[in-house]
Each structure stands twice: as C-alpha cells, then as structure tokens.
Amino acid sequence: MFDGYDSCSEDTSSSSSSEESEEEAAPLPSSLPIIKNNGQVYTYPDGKSGMATCEMCGMVGVRDAFYSKTKRFCSVSCSRSYSSNSKKASILARLQVTGKPPTKKAKVLQKQPLVAKLAAYAQYQATLQNQAKTKSAVSTEGFNWGNYINSNSFIAAPVTCFKHAPMGTCWGDISENVRVEVPNTDCSLPTKVFWIAGIVKLAGYNALLRYEGFENDSGLDFWYSICGSDIHPVGWCAASGKPLVPPRTIQHKYTNWKAFLVKRLTGAKTLPPDFSQKVSESMQYPFKPCMRVEVVDKRHLCRTRVAVVESVIGGRLRLVYEESEDRTDDFWCHMHSPLIHHIGWSRSIGHRFKRSDITKKQDGHFDTPPHLFAKVKEVDQSGEWFKEGMKLEAIDPLNLSTICVATIRKVLADGFLMIGIDGSEAADGSDWFCYHATSPSIFPVGFCEINMIELTPPRGYTKLPFKWFDYLRETGSIAAPVKLFNKDVPNHGFRVGMKLEAVDLMEPRLICVATVTRIIHRLLRIHFDGWEEEYDQWVDCESPDLYPVGWCQLTGYQLQPPASQSSRESQSGSSKQKKKTKSQQYKGHKKKGALLPLKMLTSMTSVATKKPKPH
C-alpha cells in the first residue's frame, strides 16, 4: 500500500414564455401621450403614474402594476432572471409569443407595442454573437460551496437523500475520517504528486479534507469533490506508480513518513476500489438526443405535445417542441419528471393532446422506449375511487408556495386525474393540470389545517377564515375519501436546515442554492437562499428537481448563487409589502390567456458551463 511513498525533496519549482391572451388589451387613451424616458420608463407629461417597460423582457404595462420599488420589472420572474444575468436568454424566449408569463405578484399588463418588441429583439441580436463566445448562464464568481458551508456552519443533505442523483443509491459508508489519496497542492515540484488526506466534513459530493500529518491544524484544509477524477482510494498511488510526497509545510515533521502512514492508516477506511467506476456508471443516462417524447404544453397545462431531446446534462433534459423551427421553443425537466411520457401516452389515458403540424418524423428522430420513463404505482379504479367534483387540497403548479382548495374535474385512465384550482379556472378548462392519484402533490381535505399550513382559499371567497365544512355545504360538494391518497412516507433523511441545490420550478432551467426550511411527512418546504419566503416552493422529498451540494459542479450545470443583499434591495419592494398574506399575493394570473405555469418557464441557451459529459 505504501510502496508509492516518495521522500524526494522539493528544491525544484513547479478554471418562457407564455401564450398571449386571445383577448385584445384595451388601447391606451389617445389623450395621454407617452414619452420614453432613459430608454426604459414611460411616464405621462404630468409625472403621474404612467407606463413602464420591463428591463428584462420588454413587456410594457401600467407602471404601478410593475414589481419592486423602482418599477423596473413586470414580475417576480423577470426580477429574478435579471439578477441572474439571464437577460440574453429570456428576451428571445419571450419574443416567441406576445404575452408574458404571469407570477404571483404580476397584474394584467397592457400589450407590448411593436416598437418595444423590435427594440428588444435588436438588443438580443446584438448579444447573439457574444453568446457564441461565452455561453455562461449566470456568473457564480465569488461563490464557493465550501466557504459558504464553513462560514455559516451549515449542514448539507447527504447524497443518499437523492436516489435519482449520481451515486445516490451506492454512496456506501463514505463519512468523516475516511482516507483518500489526492494531489498535494502544498508542493513546488514540477510534476503532480499525491498525499493522503482524511475527510473532516462532508457536504453532499464535496468533502473538507485535511492532509495526514497536520493533526489538529486546519490551516491547509481544503474542499474537494469526492467524485472528482483526482481523488482515489488509499493504495492507488502504489498500484499506479505515482509518488506520495508529504506537504512542504510538514515535510520535516517526521523522519520516517512510511512508518507514520502505516501507524495512521492501520484500521482506517478508504474508498471502494471500484468507486470511480461506479461514479462513471451512475452518470450514464439512457435518454439520448433526437428521442421523441410527450411533454406537458407549457402554454396550456391541460394538454401535452411532442418534443425532441436536444441535450442531456446530468439526467436533465432540454426538450425542444417538435414544431419549433428555430429550436428555441424549449422545456427543461429531469428524465424522471412526471411531466414527460412515451409517445402515445396521452391517447392511452384520455389526456388532451396537441397534434403536431409535422406529418412525419424528421430524419434521425425516434420514439423513446416506454420503459425509460418513470413508473407510476398501479391503482385499482374498480372499487371506491375519485369522482368528478370531489374536493381536495393541491399544490398549485402556478404558485408553488401555496396549497389551494381544488376540485377533481376529470378522471382519466391508469389513475390519472385532471384537477382545477377553485375560483381561478378558465371556462374551457385550459388551466386544469394532471396529477396521478398517488402524487405527493395532492392531499385530503383538512391536510393543511392538521399540519398548520396556510391553505389558500378560492379567489374571491369572502367567508374567512376558510372552513371546509362550510365550503362543502355551500358548494354541495363532497371531499375525496382520505384512504385514496398516498400515505407512504419514506425514510428520506432530510432535516430542517440542510443545504442542497434545487431547481427553481418557476424558471426550471435554473438550479439554485437552497435550504430545507420545513418538513411535513414527505413534503419539503424549499427556500432559495437570499430570497424572501414568498419564493419558497413545496416539493416532494423524492422530487428529481432536488440535488446534493456539488451536483452542478459534478455535471457541468450552472449553479445560481444566493441573492446578495444589494440585489434584493434593488429588486424587491418594501418589507411591509412583502408581508402581504398569501391570498393577497395570489393575483389573477389564471385569467383566460394566462396559461403558462411558472414552473415551466424555459430558456434559450445552454446552462452548462462546460461541455456535457458523453452519454
């Protein structure tokens, strides 16, 4: 094991869009001339409330309806996207249609003038060339998970909490005090040499390491990805003929380093010999570019469309809708997402489907084998089952921080249900959404009250506080039987306060630094660090949209750092405004034409900072 030790000296020296409403917006009064001021804000000559142009997407609307103190953005989504430096990606994505995705803070805006569109498009064209040179989505300069964990004494969720992530099911006994061989950076030799280090602390895929010989001295402790290519089990250097050289700082601490290592490592644990092979195998993904799938239509929740896999990064798919000629109408999700299905799924269960204008498959495109998709639990619908009109509580896919009063609108085959949010449904049912009967996103009547969660009542319902008994009597409805809901609670391992990387389901191309702030059985409240609680999202403990600390670094995906204090102050309203109740925040974002779910906003550009690994 220690034959690789080398005591040589060191004398030598040695980097969304939503579909526009079919209803025409009322034109502005001709008696109110509009003046463009500083290229962004429109005001009336008398200086009173006028119009404003969103600095993110170019949407023009009533200034008072805009978000933040400075009225620079039309919605929360644009505010956050701007702070993430994703302006280039979002401008063209929103120019594909003439509407703007609604958010919980958004109001109905005036339709965007053609001149504003052209200006925004010209700006996008000017930046298109830069995109070819630098394809970074958001700069994370200055953010480091290790420093963030250390400086705040945070704890990260263990890799074993994420069964869908690489090594999630084969992490083994990797823990503190496990020894590994890593490059010796405290060295001035011209060639790469290695030394043995022990794990001091784990944070997801990352480990805080300390070189052997430093004892209790943390001066040279460093963070390293356990799944990195330069980390090996003890004995690898001996087998590979690589030299083990003690760090320069402690080189003269011992005269017999080989004897020191034998004493220190006897009985110690190290990585399995096939660890790197397991890492590589766990990062092979069955989905490939050019595969065809059925995926939810981001403009109409109630139906699906055909899309083609454009790229695969860490198991996350960039899907491009088949009818998109310029391949910019895309959708991001994980390969295990409940939002994607095999070709023919919609027809088999009776789900709405938008037929493609393309009569035959394009060359090279082929249907994804059905066995690659996530399986749902089989259910027996022959006995007591869900019925149309039954009431329940459900996470609103348009506002993921809320659980709302909802109704089963249609019962499909294989246990699937079409659900609508009471008080906010479109007359044609175009904003109904599909959940499986075993989905962890639907709950029996009374779930929120029992677990002390604020239930969002139907919009316009004035008999507050909301009481289910009264509401059922007034509407002549019945509650869905409790026994029909999923009661399974896995031993997920999450704890309040744990750090992780989470998809912002309001803009799913983004993965952000996040914290688990509440746990209700299998339901997790995810908070995005640096942002107010109103951006929080309810997510299932087994959601494929949650990842261990270090996942982005491992896969080459771009991580969004916590929002800084200055960016929050410049983009957010006053603290008093932020303390509005959930019902006040729940604006009329589901009116006819406002059908794009916030969890499905998409981006035009790749979020990878380096070339994705081969599949």
From TrEMBL:
Chain intervals with Basic residues compositional bias: 576-593
Listed GO CC annotations: nucleus
Keywords for the protein's UniProt record, in alphabetical order: Chromatin regulator, Metal-binding, Nucleus, Repeat, Transcription, Transcription regulation, Zinc, Zinc-finger
Intervals holding MBT repeats: 143-247, 255-351, 353-458, 466-562
Signal peptide segment: none
Keyword Protein biosynthesis: no
Region (Disordered): 1-32, 562-615
Subcellular location: Nucleus
Record domain FCS-type: where: 45-80
Example of a GO MF term: zinc ion binding
Gene Ontology biological process terms, A to Z: chromatin organization; negative regulation of DNA-templated transcription
Keyword Amino-acid biosynthesis: no
SUPFAM superfamilies: Tudor/PWWP/MBT
SMART domains tied to this protein: MBT
Compositional bias ranges of the Low complexity kind: 1-18, 564-575
Protein name listed in UniProt: Mbt domain containing 1
Species in which this protein is naturally found: Bos taurus
